[in-house]
Amino acid sequence: MSAMLVFYPDIKLVHISAAMSSGTLFALRALALMAGMRWPRLAAVRYLSYTIDTVLLTAAMMLLTLLPSALFANGWLWTKLAFLVAYVGLGMAAFRRGRNARARAVLVTAAALCFLQIYGIARTHHPLGWLLWLDG
Ligand code: HEM
C-alpha cells in the first residue's frame, strides 16, 4: 500500500468531478447541436472537453495505481473501460457533420446510455453495473 493513499479522497473527488463535468458538457453540446446551434463545434469548446477528459483519465490512472488490485478482480474496471471506448466512439460519431437528425439522436442516446452504465459500474464495482438490479 502506497503512502500516496492519503491523497485517495482528493484524487477520487477530482475524478468524479471531471467525470460529471464531462458528461454534462457532452449532454449540453449534443442537445445544442440537435437544436441547430453552432457553438458546440467551436474550437474553445472542443479544447475544454479534451482538457476535462485528460483530467478525468489522469485521475483514473492515479486511482488505479493507488488501489489494491484485489478491488479490480471481478473485471469491473475493464468493462468500464470498454463502455468508455463505446461512449467516446458513439459521441464522436454523433458529432460528425452531415448526419441526419434521427441518426444523430440515436447515437447521442446510445452514448448517454453508455455513460450511465459507466457510472453504474463505478458505483457497484461490478461489470453488470445498473443491470445488477434486474438480478434482484
Ligand atoms: C465517463 C467516464 C467515467 C465516469 C463517469 C466515472 C465515474 C466514477 C465514479 C462515480 C467513481 C466513484 C465510485 C464510488 O466510489 O462510488 C469512480 C471511481 C473510479 N474510477 Fe471512474 N469514471 C469514469 C472513467 C474511468 C476510467 C476511464 C477509469 C480507468 C481507466 C476509471 C477508474 C476508476 C477507479 C480506479 C475508481 C476508484 C474506485 C473506488 O475508489 O472504489 N474511471 N469513477
UniProtKB/TrEMBL annotation:
The protein, known as: Invasion positive transcriptional regulator, SirB
Domain of life: Bacteria
One CC-aspect GO term: plasma membrane
InterPro entries according to UniProt: SirB (IPR007360)
Organism name: Stenotrophomonas acidaminiphila
Residue ranges that the Swiss-Prot or TrEMBL entry lists as coiled coil: none
Entry keywords, A to Z: Membrane, Transmembrane, Transmembrane helix
Transmembrane segments: 13-35, 47-71, 77-95, 102-122
